[in-house]
Amino acid sequence: MTSITTIAAGIGIAAEKKSAEVTDWAARIGWVVGLLVFIALVYWLMRQGWKWRGSLQSGLPPLHTAPAQQGPAQLELTGRYHGSTTAGQWLDRIVAHGLGVRSRVELTLTDAGLTVLRPGASDFFVPREALREARLDKGIAGKVLTEGGLLVITWMHGETLIDSGFRSERAAEHNEWVTTLNHLIKTTEGAR
Fold first, then answer.
1. For residue 36, pLDDT beyond 90
2. Which of 6, 58, 67, 131 is the most buried (most CB within 10 A)?
3. Across 37-41, 51-55, 109-113, 122-126, which has the greatest mean pLDDT?
């Protein structure tokens, strides 16, 4: 009899339950709009920071353009340009003159220097005399790879020593680039 009483009481309780509350659309829309405003504010602040960094680096002279006659290509590389930083400070990104813009890249090393062609971003040229070092590294501002996964070329521009990071589509090419560039740099320093 206890079980019948319990079942009857359960049926009575089930009959008394109310339907679910209706969604409060005004509150939900308010939260969504607030979230969108917050995201827009964060994006605007990041953009202002990028512009501010560019204005701090405005003393950097304009980038060199490639000369018409460079000589035959010693090495060529197709891959990605990951950015430039102040030499030795892998998190201090340089954004002036478009050096902070990541892009596809085509590198060409000649006797005249290093030509950096970047579709969708500004191209530049590093004269042979400005090249200082080439090495393999694992990261540069905003991009970290496995050890030795990034070709970093150090060069002098004006009074600033710059590290630029590149990654080839065929990472096995990096070692040849390091060897050839460092040999070219030693030859240039010996001729001075």
1. yes
2. 131
3. 37-41
Q: Which among 106, 109, 124 is positioned nearest to 167, based on CA atoms?
A: 106
Q: Specify the range with the lowest mean pLDDT, choosing from 2-16, 108-122, 155-169.
A: 2-16
CA distance 117 to 98: 13
8 Å CB contact between 126 and 108: no
3-class SS at 9? helix
Token pair 């060069």 is found at 155
Signed CA dihedral, 174, 176, 177, 178: sign only: positive
Query: What is the SS3 assignment for 99-134?
Result: CCCCEEEEEEECCCEEEEECCCCCCEEEEHHHEEEE
Mean per-residue pLDDT over the chain, rounded: 84
Per-residue pLDDT at 22 exceeds 80: no
Q: Partners of 108 in the beta sheet?
A: 76, 115
Write out the two tokens for 39.
């995201």
User: CA dihedral in degrees (154, 157, 158, 161; nearest 10)?
Assistant: -20
* Token pair recorded at residue 167: 């990654």
* Higher-pLDDT residue of 61, 146: 61
What tokens were used for 1? 């009899």
Q: Pick from 94, 86, 156: which is nearest to 126 by CA?
A: 156
